[in-house]
Amino acid sequence: MSKTVELPRWIDVGALPLLNLLLALVVSGLVVLAIGENPVEVVEILLYGAFGYEEAWGYTLYYTTNFIFTGLAFAVAFHCGLFNIGAEGQAYVGGLGVTLAALYLDFLPFPIMLVVAMFAAMIFGAAWAYIPAYLQARRGSHVVITTIMFNFIASSLMVYLLVNVLRPEGSMTPESEQIAEHLRLPFIHDIAGALGIEMASSPLNLSFVYAIVISVMVWLFIWHTRWGYAIRTVGANAVAATYAGLEPGRFIIIAMMISGALSSFMALNEVMGVQHRLLIDFTAGYGFVGIAVALMGRNHPFGIFLAALLFGMLYQGGAELSFEIPTISNDMVVVIQGLVILFTGAMEHMFRPRVTKIYTAWRLRQDAGEAA
Amino acid sequence: MHQMHGAGETGAVQPAIELRGIDKRFGAVHANKEIDLKVDKGTIHGIVGENGAGKSTLMSILYGFYQADAGTIHVDGKLCDIRGSEDAIAVGIGMVHQHFMLVETFSVLENVILGVEGGAVLREGVDKAREELKRLEREYSLNIDPDATVGDLSVGLQQRVEILKALYRGAEILILDEPTGVLTPQEADHLFRILDTLKEQGKTVVLITHKLREIMAATDNVSVMRQGAMVAHRKTAETSPEELSELMVGRKVLLRLEKGEANPAATVLNVENLCVDNAQGVRKVKNATFNVRAGEIVGIAGVSGNGQSELLEALGGIRSASEGKVELNGQDVTPGKGVDAAELRRRGVAHVPEDRHRMAMVTAFSAKEAAILGYEDDPAYQKGVLLDWNAISAATANMMSEFDVRPDNPDLKAANFSGGNQQKLVLAREIMRDPELLLVGQPTRGVDIGAIEFIHKRIVAMRDAGKAVLLVSVELDEIMSLADRILVMCDGAIIGEVAASEANERVLGLMMAGVDPNEAKAAEGQA
Q: Which end of chain A has fewer surrounding CB within 10 Å, N or C?
């Protein structure tokens, strides 16, 4: 019941997430100890694997790119008060859009194709988000339930399409044809090479730059446009939105479609950038991790960038870890990632009351000191 | 400090409550400054003060919601350490909150025993409770059926259930926080009769209110708080509303607004047979027909929950009309298809809604974000496709200086302003648009006296500038001092109209209770 002082920004978006992360690492350390390995060594390998050499950086940032897109997707919906867990399915269907555009419009030159593929991804991803959005806005079906169901539907639909429609004749694997060479997003190491800079090869491609640009645009959209303002109003107080003449249902649909479009950009990285074809399950859980990324990043593009980088590091460093220490299997790495998600995402508010209390007490003493 | 003495010197009898040097800070806010208070046994003791004067904090400390930083609480002369509401109940303190803490789907009996069921098997406790409840009702003539469902009871009766709850828990001292905010004048009178009975039975009552009329009518002693400090104790018989209000505000205030004659011109708002249903399909406004002309203030009086809110929200474009029509300057603006809040704003209707927190603003937003709600598409606020935050900041600063909003910081979070200042910001946003028609609901709810005066003056200034104003308020004083014509609503229908010059509390009160206006006037004639 007691009143408290509001936390300053640096604690809210800096110290608290770091504290949660630290706790996750401590618990992970205990798990590592329990299986008889040295936690310090594990952390060393993890960090070296993520940032220790040029190629590692490339991989880390490649993973980061996916997390930025799915994190932003979750954040935009969240600002409208919606918990969109459908990024997985929306990205998957977005990938279909990119692939169809690249396969059937392969006569287009690359710059035009880039724009076309972007729009194809957006349209497919947004359309997949539209149905749950419509059901939420006009029929009151909860978006959490419907987006989960739409993940499953997307998954089944894509299996059907990949096995029965998109699979090239004679192929035994459920994947689409390769997209034409000239339509692939250039790798960063190739761009650097063209500029005369030697770089180790990695899957990092142009879509990372695109992710940064999109982050800035999302920031502008949320805090500096009318629609962003309306979305935040609907999310914070739907009654006030109605009073202001901002029909909540309309902005729920808009926010969800933007969210779907943002998750679908992940397909640009995966399909056009790295795999160069549509693979089964290419979304590989990035959509779900995006929820933790957004929550940890306080639904702010800059915070999302930092959180995405953290998860990129965990993914890349984790892969290195299971390679270096055989007793730490891939499952073990997933456990560590899971702990980070648990403490930074799901249990995000664990330390908050205590930190708020300590900070309040400290502030009161400061104030008393000033008054004296 | 000499004022501290005088009250409570009734000889050797221990006061029911004695607070000594209670001090409480919330961060930079000094909510209670070394408060001393004695409440004599078997009296009704009023505590008055503006919003934010620290009354609620003080009572929350007494009831154990907060712990004081310094000072002691003595109940019946004994030092008590009250750390939670259980401790307060244990020493015989009961509290009736402003917002009832009742389970609407439970019966009266079930609500009363909630938390003190007495054992795992409900049966036993219930039977015992029924006996006890009957005794309490007889003793205090509360007139409540223990088996009635609470949700079916009127607000006045629900309040009595709250009182019953406290008594059932053995309360000797009853604290009532703004108990009459939701009652008709008649229901309030009934409440005061119950409080008198309680007093006769030796109970002690602490009444927190900002309505001086009630203090004068119901209390034996009164204490006045201002800005966290206890500034005076008086015997009610020896003081006057003028003195009390001066003590509350620290300067003289006009209790009655001085305003000139209205000069009504052309009809601005014309409402014909308007019906409004709520989300459950229940008809809340029934065939409302009235008009508002330019240059007049029309007040709608009524006990809260009789359709005024729905009427105001429909006229503001938030609810659709089920039947009937609404015209603005002769043009059809019946709320519903194509006419929403945004459209009405474009046509010059400004709306200050009744519920500031739920509707008029987003408390999580900064003041400048709150200051453009509903007007975010104004070209003056745009810079290309982006919002021009510099222009918005400047506009907000302008609103703040024009309406004396403090602190005048457009970047401060809306939630961090006091209620009065939030309200002034909302009024500034709506009034400074220079609308044709101002819809305003409860303009001064939760606003302190100084700000009330200011807000009333601004509303009258709107009228004098030739604008139409429709005012909805549950405060009869406010309606009577502001409105030029008064419409009374009961159960969704407008049951009559009274010219402000002929209005008095009794007639309006009877009409609010559903009595036909002619009968009400006749009854008044006999009185």
A: C
